[in-house]
Structure formats: C-alpha cells, structure tokens
Amino acid sequence: MQDSRPATLTVFLIAVMTAATAGLGAAVSGGSEDVWYFALEKPGLTPPDIIFAVVWPILFVLMAFGAILVRIKAGSFANASAALGLYFLQLTANLSWSWLFFGFHQVLIAIVALGILWLLIVIMMRTFAKHSVAAAILQIPYLIWVTFAGYLNASILLLNQ
Q1: pLDDT tens by residue, 87-113
Q2: pLDDT digits (tens, 9 = 90+) for 108-137
Q3: How far apart are CA 32 and CA 13, in angstroms?
Q4: Which of 34, 135, 150, 152 could serve as 69's disulfide partner, Cβ 3.0–4.6 Å?
Q5: Residue 106's closest CA among 148, 146, 35, 157?
C-alpha cells in the first residue's frame, strides 16, 4: 500500500538531515587550520586535508541517495521505517564522532563512537539491501572510509600518548 504522504517529504527530510550532519561536522573539523589537530603526530597514511574536503561530501551524497532509494523502493515511509531509522541513527553517530574528536579532543571516546558508527553502517546496509541492493552498495565507500578513519583515529591516539 502506498503512503498517503508524498515521498518528497521523506526525500526532503533525508536531504536536510544529511546536509545538517555534514555542516555541523564540518563546523568542528578544521583540518590543518585547527591548532590542536595540526599539532598532533599523525600516521604516514594521513591524506592531505583536501582529500577529506572532497571525499566527505561525496560520501554524504551517496548516503542520502541510498536512503532515498530505500524510501522509494519501500513504497511508504512505514515500510522503510527500520532502514531509515538506522540511517538517521548513523547520521547521529557520524556527527558525534566529529564532535568528540575535533570539537572535544576526546580521541579515545571518539574511537568508541567510530566503532558504533561502523556497526550501524553494516546493519544499515543489511537493512537497506532488503529494499534495494543498490542502496546498500552505495554505502560501501562510506564503510571503507569509516574503516580508514578508524585506523587514523587509533594511530593518532597511539602516536600522541
């Protein structure tokens, strides 16, 4: 049964919440301009700041597009509620990592948040696949990048003790 509310409302909500997460995360992620981050000893595989500035927007677009595909394929918000609930939950975990690491300089707690985020992405992908395999596949770059972020986060913790 089709939802009486238009899918455009959900699409708008996904777009707004994803953009807000990206913006609020970027607000504390100053890269080399962040005195605290600049002073940290970083692992050899740390990419230049410009890579982060390019990769994250692409990942947020892929994430949102996957969630939109799920909503459309599900036919209603109610049918997609578990998958979209996970989507919004992982956005919250994503934002918490940015703020814990860059905003509050809590590198160890940020690793815990990153582990939770990683698990949420995996669970979200499995749930997305029930509605759209393409939506789940679109999350693979995100999962890879968060895995790499885990390496960076853990290395920074170890190198700066």
Answers
A1: 999 999 999 999 999 999 999 999 999
A2: 999 999 999 999 999 999 999 999 999 999
A3: 32
A4: 135
A5: 157
How crowded is residue 49: how many other Cβ atoms within 10 Å of its Cβ? 16
Nearest CA to 111 among 64, 38, 160? 160
Which pLDDT belongs to residue 33? Answer: 82
Rounded Cα gap, residues 129 and 20, in angstroms: 25
Q: Among candidates 49, 61, 50, which has minimal Cα distance to 22?
A: 61
> What token pair was written down for 74?
């599900």
58-65 long-range Cβ contacts below 8 angstroms, 24+ apart: 58/141, 59/141, 59/142, 59/145, 60/18, 60/19, 60/21, 60/22, 62/138, 62/139, 62/141, 62/142, 63/18, 63/87, 63/91, 63/138, 63/139, 63/142, 64/14, 64/15, 64/18, 65/135, 65/138
pTM for the complete prediction?
Answer: 0.93
Angle 14-120-137 (CA atoms, 0-180°, nearest 5)? Answer: 70
Q: Are 53 and 161 in contact (CB under 8 A)?
A: no
User: What Å distances lie between residue 150 and 2, 9, 73, 84, 111, CA to CA?
Assistant: 40, 34, 32, 24, 7
Q: How far is it, in rounded angstroms, from Cα 99 to Cα 93?
A: 10
Q: Cα(6)–Cα(42) distance, rounded to whole angstroms?
A: 47
